[in-house]
Design brief:
Elements: H1 2-11, E1 21-23, E2 30-32, E3 36-43, E4 49-56, H2 57-77, E5 94-95, E6 108-109, E7 111-115, E8 122-127, H3 128-137, H4 141-152, H5 156-166
């Protein structure tokens, strides 16, 4: 397996990556930039290739394997809903691709398996937009409530709606 990694690293395109090093966000080790993934078509202001994230290749590969294993286990117990079924978050029908959403239908696309990243507990099947949006705001209740509070702002009607909804009302 070690030989496989040497071959992989040697075969990677390392042209136009910035010199230097980075601390991996996962293992905490300081590693040369050649140990990270870089986009081939996204660049920094000085023209160097942009780093995909701050996970070294070794950690990124392990995280990907672990996540695939978790998702396979979840899918055995919680099969993906059929296309056309509603997203558990936005309640819009979900289709395979954007082009598959019928004209005149307020639908979305791309089922994604949502799970708690700390406990690996399955939460539900969401459309790509909802899952990505939730991840972008922090993927936890406190973060989502901060966003909701921001959206409510000084609007008393929205605040009353939120209170009624949290008491058990429906959208």
């Amino acid at each position: 397996m070690y030989q496989h990694w040497i071959t992989y690293i040697m075969a990677r395109d390392l042209t136009n990556i910035p010199e230097g090093s980075c601390v991996c966000s996962h293992c905490g080790e300081l590693k040369e930039n050649s140990n990270y993934s870089f986009y081939s078509n996204r660049f920094t202001k000085d023209g160097k290739r942009l780093r995909v994230n701050t996970y070294c290749i070794t950690c990124s590969t392990q995280i990907s394997r672990d996540l695939s294993k978790i998702k396979r286990a979840i899918k055995k117990e919680h099969p993906q809903p059929a296309y056309g079924e509603p997203c558990a978050c936005c309640n819009k029908p979900v289709y395979a691709h954007k082009k598959d959403v019928p004209a005149g239908v307020d639908g979305t696309w791309g089922w994604q398996c949502d799970h708690d990243h700390k406990t690996n507990k399955f939460r539900g099947w969401l459309c790509k937009k909802c899952n990505t949006g939730m991840g972008a705001v922090g993927d936890d209740l406190k973060s989502v409530l901060r966003v909701a509070n921001y959206l409510i702002g000084d609007d008393s009607e929205s605040r009353q709606y939120a209170i009624e909804y949290l008491k058990g009302g429906t959208v």
